[in-house]
């Protein structure tokens, strides 16, 4: 793949410069820290601060979800690399309204190290920061606590942010995030690698006609590599892993997210969604709301993932709660 | 013998400058190692960190060793990100403490700098030997240096033994399954690859060795 960039050392800063210009009615960069994208409405009075973040290269994750009714700030790292502790801390200082803050991000060792240091710094200022790690990727480990976070980030962030917007306290917001995470499962398929801006080369090798089911968004190996198969067969395999993992059963109500890893077109995604909907119908699982598009990507990687969120009345209300951000609007 | 073996600020500044240069040179090698079992940006992220160090080194070398090392560590912590940022940031920041505000240290004090630095990496990363991390290079290296000092081995030879241990430790990561970091989830697929953090740790120790008088 070809990338349209300037100096690879400047990709993150140049993206951020463009981002806050393009969406200046929503967001700005902190004046003293160019790695914190903060909502123009923040800090919101009497609201728990919602802070998300992680490496760059997954846009619209994380910065695309900063705005009203969603995250108050996103902390931005280098490509595929967690941000450092200082911006994690600066984000807290910028959005805390006296009710504490919640950090939410995918479960990766580097992110945990850096965000934890940010939380330690904030606690020295007497600001309480809690953390919820997203662990939705079913094939990444048998142990749920060791699983990585992928597109399920979107659901967990959305639910917790809505809870915060309704005026809940930090413990209640954290509990909502944990409940959303506990009800969310994802799995993907990779068709090609992303191209690293620094080298112009793919992160991993993948044959022209190959695919890998279960591969992570940074190219972490999945369950099986083989020749590419028709969409329906791929979705069948993905659903065979996801459905029994929670499990999602007849009578349940879910939201579905069919996510592009970057280079897979909406045409393909909707073919995939069609099959997901068929399977859910067969199983007697009702779809409350579906999302199809790029939500958590890996630059120019081809492939997609399916995420299911099992809903109850509370989660449904929080999912439907209005929000307005550059990359996700709900009325 | 160790009290008379002095390493001054010029030595440390030269080590850091050489380190910045070699990180630049080895960037794609480290990134290649990381592509195999991580996310492929170890080399680039270290180079972003050391470019920041290089930019400020002229100014920082006016400070004493404690502050100099702290500033280097803070720059790495702030610019590198990922796991490598906090880990190498802690290494350099902590290394400055035993220098106690001086402009030069003897070999005993230098050993203490390495000791508290490496212990800080272990503590921050919560890692022990055998988990396919930089600790696999750093811990045996430190133990070897302590042993050589116990035996009264001449400083540069003692450090050479330390470096050899670090390299064996680095190579010992090849057959391992990772227990920490992003490679942890690869299971058996991590076997056959060197840990990129163990490799960069060897590069750091090598620059300390190469510049010793």
From TrEMBL, chain A:
Pfam families: Dak1 (PF02733). GO terms for biological process: glycerol catabolic process. GO terms for cellular component: cytosol. The keyword Kinase applies. Its EC number is 2.7.1.121. Pathway: Polyol metabolism; glycerol degradation. Coiled coil: none annotated. InterPro entries: DhaK_dom, Dihydroxyacetone_Kinase. Residues 7-328 form the DhaK domain. One of its GO terms (molecular function) is glycerone kinase activity. Signal peptide: none annotated. Homodimer. The dihydroxyacetone kinase complex is composed of a homodimer of DhaM, a homodimer of DhaK and the subunit DhaL. PANTHER family: TRIOKINASE/FMN CYCLASE, TRIOKINASE_FMN CYCLASE. This is phosphoenolpyruvate--glycerone phosphotransferase. It comes from Geosporobacter subterraneus DSM 17957.
TrEMBL record, chain B:
It catalyses: dihydroxyacetone + phosphoenolpyruvate = dihydroxyacetone phosphate + pyruvate. The keyword Cell inner membrane does not apply. GO terms for molecular function: glycerone kinase activity; phosphoenolpyruvate-glycerone phosphotransferase activity. Keywords: Glycerol metabolism, Kinase, Transferase. Gene3D superfamilies: 1.25.40.340. InterPro entries: DhaK_L_YcgS, DhaL_dom, DhaL_dom_sf, Dihydroxyacetone_Kinase. One of its GO terms (biological process) is glycerol catabolic process. One of its GO terms (cellular component) is cytosol. Pathway: Polyol metabolism; glycerol degradation. Residues 10-210 form the DhaL domain. It is an enzyme of class 2 (transferase). Its EC number is 2.7.1.121. ADP-binding subunit of the dihydroxyacetone kinase, which is responsible for the phosphoenolpyruvate (PEP)-dependent phosphorylation of dihydroxyacetone. DhaL-ADP is converted to DhaL-ATP via a phosphoryl group transfer from DhaM and transmits it to dihydroxyacetone binds to DhaK. Homodimer. The dihydroxyacetone kinase complex is composed of a homodimer of DhaM, a homodimer of DhaK and the subunit DhaL. This is phosphoenolpyruvate--glycerone phosphotransferase.
């Amino acid at each position: 793949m070809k990338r349209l960039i300037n100096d690879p050392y400047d990709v993150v800063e140049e993206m951020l410069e463009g981002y806050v210009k393009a969406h200046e009615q929503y967001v700005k960069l902190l004046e003293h820290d160019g790695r914190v994208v903060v909502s123009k409405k923040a800090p919101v009075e009497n609201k728990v601060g919602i802070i998300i973040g992680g490496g760059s290269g997954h846009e619209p994750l994380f910065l695309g979800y900063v705005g009203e009714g969603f995250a108050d700030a996103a902390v931005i790292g280098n490509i595929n690399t967690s941000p450092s502790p200082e911006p994690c801390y600066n984000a807290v200082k910028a959005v805390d309204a006296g009710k504490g803050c919640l950090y939410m991000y995918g479960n990766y060792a580097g992110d945990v190290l850096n965000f934890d240091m940010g939380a330690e710094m904030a606690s020295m200022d007497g600001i309480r920061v809690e953390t919820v790690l997203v662990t939705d990727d079913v094939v990444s480990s048998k142990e749920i606590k060791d699983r990585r976070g992928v597109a399920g980030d979107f659901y967990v962030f959305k639910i917790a942010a809505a809870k915060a917007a309704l005026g809940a306290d930090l413990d209640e917001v954290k509990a909502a995030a944990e409940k959303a995470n506990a009800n969310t499962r994802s799995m993907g398929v990779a068709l090609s690698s992303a191209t690293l801006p620094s080298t112009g080369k793919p992160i991993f090798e993948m044959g022209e006609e190959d695919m890998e089911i279960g591969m992570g968004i940074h190219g972490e190996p999945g369950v099986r590599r083989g020749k590419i198969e028709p969409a329906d067969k791929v979705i069948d395999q993905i659903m065979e892993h996801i459905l029994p993992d929670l499990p999602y059963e007849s009578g349940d109500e879910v939201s579905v997210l069919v996510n592009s890893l970057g280079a897979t077109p909406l045409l393909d995604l909707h073919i995939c969604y069609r099959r997901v909907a068929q399977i859910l119908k067969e199983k007697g699982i009702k779809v409350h709301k579906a999302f199809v598009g790029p939500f958590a990507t890996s630059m120019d990687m081809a492939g997609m993932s399916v995420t299911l969120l099992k809903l109850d009345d509370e989660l449904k209300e929080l999912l439907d709660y209005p929000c307005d951000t550059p990359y996700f609007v709900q009325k | 013998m160790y009290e008379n073996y002095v390493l001054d600020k010029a030595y440390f500044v030269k080590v850091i400058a050489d380190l910045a240069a070699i990180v630049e040179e080895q960037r794609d090698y480290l990134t290649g190692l990381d592509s195999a079992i991580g996310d492929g940006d170890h080399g680039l992220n270290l180079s972003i960190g050391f470019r920041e160090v290089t930019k400020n080194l002229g100014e920082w070398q006016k400070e004493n060793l404690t502050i100099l090392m702290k500033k280097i560590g803070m720059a790495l912590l702030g610019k590198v990100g990922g796991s490598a940022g906090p880990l190498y940031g802690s290494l350099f920041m902590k290394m400055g403490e035993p220098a106690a505000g001086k402009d030069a240290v003897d070999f005993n004090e230098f050993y203490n700098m390495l000791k508290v630095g490496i212990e800080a990496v272990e503590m921050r990363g919560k890692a022990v030997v055998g988990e396919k991390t930089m600790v696999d290079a750093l811990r045996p290296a430190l133990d070897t240096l302590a042993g050589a000092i116990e035996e009264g081995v001449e400083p540069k030879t003692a450090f050479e033994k330390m470096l050899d241990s670090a390299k064996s430790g680095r190579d010992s990561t090849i057959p391992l399954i990772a227990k920490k970091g992003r490679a942890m989830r690869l299971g058996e697929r991590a076997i056959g690859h060197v840990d990129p953090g163990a490799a960069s740790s060897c590069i750091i120790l090598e620059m300390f060795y190469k510049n010793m008088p």
